[in-house]
Amino acid sequence: MINRLSDRSKKIKPSFTLEMTSKAAKLRSQGVDVINFSAGQPDFNTPKNIINAAKKAMDSGLTKYTSGSGIFELREAICNKLANENCISANTNQVLVSNGEKQSLYLACQALFQQNDEVLIFTPYWVSFPEFVILADATPIFVKTKIDKNFEPDFDDLKSKITSKTKGMIINTPSNPTGGVWSREAIEKSLKIASKNNITVISDECYERLVFNSHHEISEKINLEEKINAQILTCMSMSKTYAMTGWRIGYTYGNEEIVSAMSKIQGQSTSCANSIAQAASIEALSGDQSKVEVMKGQFKKRRDLMVNLLNSLPDVSCKIPGGAFYAFPSFEKYLGKKIKNITINNSFDLSDLFLSKANIATVPGDGFGASGFVRFSFATSEKDIVEGLSRIKDLLIN
Ligand SMILES: Cc1ncc(COP(=O)(O)O)c(C=O)c1O
């Protein structure tokens, strides 16, 4: 058969976090009692006031295409949010609303990078970052981080990876998959390196409201306060803060020229984001915020439970994640060993073992560039956390 597919379609990998979620869903539909620690989304429903705003939007006929860069009132609400929560003064032309932050990040890479460009990505990384870079025909360059310092950059490695081709740097704090939250100093240092080398920073801050022991300061705020003068595109999402993953609304704030180039590409690919979800997002950003704090409180309780139970497993160690809803324990001591007669060569083998022998869905760290690690999402009930970790303990002990 003649191969009709483009090289582009062949050179990227599918999102295997989504694959793990569908594997777990398939087993569940077959009646298997699967506990799902692979979810990358809150298990709560979207708050009622947001749902009601969507209903109202439909009833009042807000069911048509919107302006390509997003409903003006939503961009205004985003500017107000940036001012009130993040101490950033933005105008509506600097804001682009997309079909989820994932599209914002994709568009940023499309607008900024091309062949022969190199883009710095910190390991462990969110699965889509390298693929966005590859889809822009550029090359991802991986930079080490320090596990004992909340997965902050290894600055010696960072400096050694910069070449005349380095065009971009993707920052993600709090991080998926580690839950690591970088200190203000680490962000400042990274931005100074970027500024000095004329590197554009894409700052993915979708977990900004899920920081447990401190208040999240966005990179752009630090950039302005310290007068670093780095070029930053800030990408944010409604998904995690407001339990709105299925509504698909995210946004970018940054330099008007770059935002307008992104908007042009969006206009020729998806026109605009969903009108009803945009209307609901105005309510999410401007309405009652109490549910955000309630959800965060729940995540914190579950985090403490999950991390304690993970650290009670033999030969497993897990740092306390400062944000997001992921624990990222090391199972490195199991590499090369046999469990239930299966040799564990990498984290794919571990995740497969957890699913096949204990009905536990997790995401293997190899997919995030971290062999020997496994991502456990605690966006699930305390009952499931206790039962799931007890099943894994039985598996590892026997
Ligand atoms: C680090 C990171 N960035 C971006 C996204 C995308 O979020 P959205 O649902 O807004 O597309 C996710 C979703 O899992 C994520 O974990």
Provide a descriptive summary of the structure in words.
The protein has 398 residues and is an alpha/beta fold. It folds into two domains: 133 residues, Aspartate Aminotransferase, domain 1, CATH 3.90.1150; 239 residues, Aspartate Aminotransferase, domain 2 (3-Layer(aba) Sandwich). It has 14 helices and 16 strands. It has a seven-stranded mixed β-sheet, sandwiched between helices. A three-stranded antiparallel β-sheet has the order 11-16-15. The chain has a two-stranded parallel sheet with strand order 1-14. The longest helix is centred in the C-terminal third of the chain and has 22 residues. The protein starts with 6 loop residues before the first helix and ends with a helix. The mean pLDDT is 95. The structure holds pyridoxal-5'-phosphate. The site of pyridoxal-5'-phosphate has 13 residues, from helix 5.
Strand content: 5-15%
Mean pLDDT: 95
Strands ordered across the widest β-sheet: 2-10-9-8-7-3-4
User: How many H/I helices?
Assistant: 14
Radius of gyration: 21 Å
H/E series: HHEHHEHEHEEEHEHEHEEHHHEEEHEEEH
* CATH architecture descriptor text of the largest domain: 3-Layer(aba) Sandwich
> CATH superfamily of the largest domain, please?
Type I PLP-dependent aspartate aminotransferase-like (Major domain)
The helicity comes to 40-55%
Largest sheet: number of strands, sense, barrel closure:
7 strands, mixed
Uncertain segments of ≥5 residues (pLDDT<50)?
Answer: none
- The computed structural class is alpha/beta
